[in-house]
Amino acid sequence: MIIETLSETGCFGGKIGFYRHASTANNCDMQFSVFVPPQVALGKVPVLTFLSGLTCTEENFMAKSGAQRIAAELGLMLVSPDTSPRGDGVPDDPDGSYDFGLGAGFYVNSTEQPFSQHYQMYDYVTQELQQIIFDNFPGDRDRHGLTGHSMGGHGALTIGLRNPDIFNSLSAFAPICTTLHSPWGKKAMDYYLGDDTATWAIYDSCEIARNVLDPGAYRKILVDQGAADPFLVEQLRPELLKAACEESGLALELRIHDGYDHGYYFISTFIEEHLRFHADQLKN
Prior knowledge:
This protein has nine helices and nine strands. By secondary structure, it is α/β, with parallel strands linked by helices.
């Protein structure tokens, strides 16, 4: 699969680049970013994919998180895809709102028109992006972690819990823990999947966690949440995820931090701990 290099530059002894390719899954061009650490000079390195949240692109995490310095120390490759398909003909929120459509793919495979032609982000992350990364960059397919923020935290948890054969470590920052019981999730699932809520369960972190087949697939799942997050009570619902994991036996470490909100100051504060968490779990 051919990728186009948009830009590349040195970063902490490694290289950060932004790329574009024609996506078969989403039927449009897609963009993604990659930080390659200096340890690639010695061979393949573990990979951590970060799924961003509402309104974000492939740039937000790389520009705002401050992750590259620690990733360079640990020898972690960082990957961050765009959050949705984009381009001429890709349908958007009919009301022009920020929480659906462009920048808000919710990491699902849409089944409803007019969105199903393009919004296949679940397949994009689990299949097409895998091929792109491991065919073109020196990452180790057998050492691949997944994390994300907000909508991307929802994506990380739902995709990671359903695909422990692809991902070997899992964490999230302020994730939308339930699509069935949050206004953001209900709106997106209704448009993308239709009004039969039974079809939403495979994209609800709590439902997946409650019914997971192998509770020991991950040694531990790390979730950080700010107590001053304005979306905590209505949209994110981490208490439901905690209850679901306790029911199934999944090992979840849920940390609530006083004084932190939903933004990148929160992410940048705790990103080092997440990188070290993944590096430890992705050891040979």
